[in-house]
Structure of GDSL esterase/lipase:
Amino acid sequence: MASSLFIVGEIGVNDYLVAFAGNTTVEEARAFVPHIVGAVRSVVTEVIAAGARTVLVPGMIPLGCEPQLLALDQSSDHDPASGCIKPLNDLAELHNRALNGMLRELRRANPRTAILYADLYGAVADLIASPRKYGFRDKPLAACCGGSGAYNFNMTAFCGAAGTAACADPSEYVSWDGVHFTEAANRHTACATLKANSPALLDSWTAEARRRIGCT
């Protein structure tokens, strides 16, 4: 236990996605935040009690950039720069502030345990803002595999259903099916987390090792 890395999460993404698919408002969803963060705290506390000494907790993704929610959204409250839904991203940032506050409390209570935060929001937002910098296509909000429309997402024709098709090169896309990220996007977030939390470790690897996992 003491020599292993425990990843606690992602916890909360489905709570928000399912709620919004069921017409929950952003204001109503804000009340979920303390409950979801409390669930994360409970799990982290349990693994520490079981002997974990290194725990990584992923933060919330930018919900307003998810093709599923973009396809469902009928409002005009989109960020002009990114194209993402601003109130949903504000909710994700609220979640992350509460999560980080909770993690600070746990670090004070458990000084012998490394409790790390993975900033998924920042990593994904960076891809959306500068897709070509990381080898992604110019329009990063559409899914690779899906049905139709501006975001290639249809609630009645999920990826794999009749009438849907996958793109030729998933590595150019941030979203695989409108809900889950592609392998290329996940690699980017993993590398961003390594750079933020363990830059010395990453620097100690050979160029070949970094290239093999995509952390150049």
Notes: The CA atoms of residues 127 and 134 lie 7 Å apart. The two ends are 30 Å apart (CA to CA).
